[in-house]
TrEMBL record:
Protein name: GntR family transcriptional regulator
Keyword terms, alphabetized: DNA-binding, Transcription, Transcription regulation
GO molecular function (one): DNA-binding transcription factor activity
Gene3D superfamilies: Winged helix-like DNA-binding domain superfamily/Winged helix DNA-binding domain
Species of provenance: Temperatibacter marinus
Boundaries of every HTH gntR-type domain copy: 11-79
SUPFAM superfamilies: Winged helix' DNA-binding domain (SSF46785)
Entries under InterPro entries matching the protein: Tscrpt_reg_HTH_GntR, WH-like_DNA-bd_sf, WH_DNA-bd_sf
PROSITE patterns: HTH_GNTR
Pfam families for the chain: GntR (PF00392)
Length: 123
């Protein structure tokens, strides 16, 4: 599996990594149990910050696409194929849209919604 990032793309680097790993799984280039490069190794290979790769791995692990086994490494999760097709961002978008619609029905302005959302994110 080869991972390439486009530093000039508007898509964040960590998102590019997540998308490419999920695609490699859906295309059977990665299968359950396959080892992934360490965060440090992949960051070095791609000439990106370790935190970028760590963030991508954290999101993939949250979604049960990969699993970290401590010092033994990071591996493709046994349910990766099923889980890599699930888009949590779409779920978040739907939930937020429902909340925005409810706020608008209450008479809130977009400005009030933004201010309240920002305050809620900081608490």
């Amino acid at each position: 599996m080869q991972i390439l990032v486009d530093i000039d793309s508007e898509v964040p680097l960590f998102t590019q990594l997540v998308d490419q790993i999920k695609k490699a799984i859906s295309d059977d280039h990665l299968t359950p149990g396959d080892a992934l490069p360490s965060i440090r190794q992949l960051a070095s290979d791609l000439a990106v910050n370790n935190k970028t790769v760590a963030k991508a791995y954290k999101l993939l692990e949250r979604d049960n696409v990969i699993i970290s086994k401590g010092y033994r490494g990071t591996f493709v999760h046994e349910d990766a194929l099923k889980n890599s097709s699930h888009d949590i961002s779409a779920d978040i978008q739907d939930s937020l849209q429902d909340a925005i619609n409810k706020c608008r029905q209450l008479g809130a302005t977009d400005s009030e919604i933004r201010i309240t959302f920002s305050a809620a994110m900081q608490s």
